[in-house]
Amino acid sequence: MESTFKEIGDRQSVLDLDPKSAVGGGVEDVYGEDRATEDQLVTPWTFSVASGYSLLRDPQYNKGLAFTEKERDAHYLRGLLPPIILSQQLQEKKLMQNIRQYQVPLQKYISLMELQERNERLFYKLLIDNVEELLPVVYTPTVGEACQKYGSIFKRPQGLYISLKEKGKILEVLKNWPERTIQAIVVTDGERILGLGDLGCQGMGIPVGKLSLYTALGGLRPSACLPITIDVGTNNEQLLKDEFYIGLRQRRATGKEYYELLHEFMSAVKQNYGEKVLIQFEDFANHNAFELLAKYRTTHLVFNDDIQGTASVVLAGVVAALKLVGGALAEQKFLFLGAGEAGTGIAELIALEISKQTKAPLEETRKKIWLVDSKGLIVSSRKDSLQNFKKPWAHEHEPVKDLLDAVKVIKPTILIGSSGVGKTFTKEVVEALSSCNDKPIIMALSNPTSQSECTAEEAYTWSKGRAIFASGSPFDPVEYNGKTYVPGQSNNAYIFPGFGLGLIISGAIRVHDEMLLAASEALASQVTKENFDKRLIYPPFSTIRKISAHIAANVAAKAYELGVATRLPRPKDLVKYAESCMYTPVYRNYR
Ligand SMILES: O=C([O-])CC(=O)C(=O)O
Ligand SMILES: [Mg+2]
């Protein structure tokens, strides 16, 4: 960055960023051992610029109309801005007014992405201060539509694209990224974007959105986050025919070709960024997701958000819901629609937790959990034809052809939708579930909203107001029989930002399942009496940074306990430490 500025012109100024002006006394955007590295990179909070003009065009440093008189004098900004000076607060007010004028969610998305590319601190300030309103814009459901149209709304690359063309050169490609200190990577191959299927290279919207949440909800520095899309082609015929499609125009590479590229990628990441860089696998198709996770979890700091992040958030919701409904986890009967990453991932984590609580072997606790896939209930007679990740769930039972029949014979207390297919919790299904439960727990997890197994309104109406309901994408509160019901959002966004923060502040080098249980426990413990009184099983997103600090602390504590934390000595108060490490996007003063 420094050299770029130096090269542009002959005039130079030194931007001296005053650490005292930042909330947290200047420790805000550095973590543990990386603190030294980061300080070296910007020592002492200084970098050179050629002109105010380039300063205004650098999203990391630009403050727009918030540059002070002194800064305008010192950094060649005179005349480049209108005379007025706005506070960050007023800038926020103006932006929110603008965004609210847009009726179409995608327009809001585009304007927020433009802000991110123009003034990063203002983007994050806005997102943090208006998280409940803006989360559905930068994240599900709108991000799904953005990916579908990414080819036409794409303006500037927001992450790294690694395609088959880069085979043999991935290390060089990583070096093209301007930031050297990377702490978190979210990577997709675009094959199963939310419940929308194969969007190929246009899946980039997902790693970009997830990493925005890493910063806004979990406090990671934006510059330490790297979104990556691996492009091995797409099997989406529509995209292949689309003249504006931005990815490789070929069908997906599979088998050896696919795994060699992925292996080169994983090795290059470790070589370039070290073993403490976190790699989050996101929205891979089932057939690769399980294999990649199994292969790399013993050599890299990785987790799969759809398998493990989702599992952790759902377990937390179930534990909280049982406080409303009564009964122990081990007494519940679970039925899933969908036996892919989310379904089997959640099922396994629940079985693990029951096993931990009751000391019963995992093979026994799994028997409380039943899964339905597109061919009906997963039962032992189907075992030979099942994919490996489904086999643990093939219990002894007569074949059952569909979800409705499965609800009738299994009589679950908790129904979980993880199929990626919308409108599958029909009136009959919800009524059958409600006929055997006073307070049926329904989780319709598939995203975006169009793929939700049912809507909040349907769940409350068909259960006659008795359901405890949560969904992957947000729904507005519902009026039913004069009462207002507020649905919960059971989305891995509650977990991954704090989870990642916990891994990073402890210098963890591996992810273990116990760490996911620790995250889940921390989230469930953040549901207050006030939330329960409203029948909420998750705390509101407005308190997410506090929640993330608690999750991070619990995860870090577990990492130390398991001996996979490398940041020594262990900070005494991990919650305080996590909070002190979080990036805050308040403007800094430039001397
Ligand atoms: O992105 C989300 O909203 C949750 C998620 O991981 C998915 O649906 O794949
Ligand atoms: Mg996902």
List the helices and strands and how they pair.
Blueprint: H1 2-8, E1 13-18, H2 34-42, E2 46-49, H3 52-56, H4 69-74, H5 88-101, H6 105-118, H7 120-129, H8 131-138, H9 142-148, H10 150-153, E3 160-163, H11 170-176, E4 184-188, H12 205-218, E5 225-231, H13 237-241, H14 255-273, E6 278-281, H15 286-296, E7 302-304, H16 305-325, E8 334-337, H17 341-358, H18 362-365, E9 369-373, E10 376-377, H19 403-410, E11 414-417, H20 427-435, E12 441-444, H21 456-462, E13 468-471, E14 478-480, E15 483-485, E16 488-489, H22 496-506, H23 513-525, H24 529-533, H25 544-562, H26 574-581, E17 589-590
Parallel strand pairs: 3-5, 4-5, 4-6, 6-7, 8-9, 8-11, 11-12, 12-13, 13-16
Antiparallel strand pairs: 1-2, 1-17, 9-10, 14-15
Strand percent estimate:
5-15%
Distance between the termini: 19 Å
* Morphology: globular
Largest sheet composition: 7 strands, mixed
Query: Which value, in Å, is the CA radius of gyration?
Result: 24 Å
Strand runs, count: 17
In short:
With 591 residues, the protein is of the alpha/beta class. The protein contains 26 helices and 17 strands. Mean pLDDT is 92; it is low at 1-12 and 18-45.
Protein described:
The chain contains 26 helices and 17 strands. The relative contact order is 0.11. Strands 10-9-8-11-12-13-16 form a 7-stranded mixed beta sheet, sandwiched between helices. It is α/β, with parallel strands linked by helices and 591 residues long. α19 (403-410) runs parallel beside α20 (427-435). Bound molecules: oxaloacetate ion and magnesium ion. Oxaloacetate ion binds next to α16.
